[in-house]
Amino acid sequence: MTKCSTADTNMQEYVILLHGLARSERSLRKLALALEKRGYRCINHSYPSTKHDIATLADVAVAEALSLCGDARKINFVTHSMGGILVRQYLSQHHIDNLGRVVMLGPPNQGSEVVDTLHNVPGFRFINGPAGMQLGTEAMSVPNRLGDVNFELGVIAGTRSINILLSTMLPKPNDGKVSVERTKLAGMKDHIALPVTHPLMMNNAKVIEQTVHFLVHGVFNH
Known about the structure:
By secondary structure, this protein is α/β, with parallel strands linked by helices. The chain has one domain (2-217): 3-Layer(aba) Sandwich (Rossmann fold). The protein is 34% helix and 17% strand. It is built from nine helices and seven strands; from the N terminus they run E-E-H-E-H-E-H-E-H-H-H-E-H-H-E-H. The chain has helices at residues 29-37, 54-67, 82-93, 113-118, 124-133, 142-145, 164-167, 180-183, 205-217; strands at residues 2-4, 14-18, 41-45, 75-80, 99-105, 152-158, 190-194. Helix 3 (82-93) links the parallel strand 4 (75-80) and strand 5.
């Protein structure tokens, strides 16, 4: 876990960053640094994404990150991929009084056809863990059971892929892991699609600028 700050806690908003499946906080360091330069205090939190199911990961990862926010005036979230599902899971069970805005990058908000296709392939569960098995598109998958959102949510989807094989399992457009359509969620405040790939979108300058824009204004810069 990387904690980064530049100013007095009481004068700053916090941003909790949650990485995706089989990643670590290293994948979000560039984004965390960019947010810090904009005056946010950042909790770039790592969690064992392949060791537990989504409900357990949400209770552990989100709760741990929140405990590091002290008396923050406002707490925002920026997530990549499955990190967004952890936030949805946590907020379905808990209330955060000073919750600000949430930006999700490439979230499988309606699941992913990649999981539908590969979940029975030998080694898939070993690599992706219990949580990865819960990200399919069926009606009873965790993302689809969580339902609509009632917080300020902005979603950034990608339209390019560096994984040709996985892209064939997905409706177009997609980012190689999630289709643009399945990143959408009833109740979200704004949505934007950019020409970026799933594993690298968080490092893209346009994605970073749009993330900041939503945190500040509650909408993307269309």
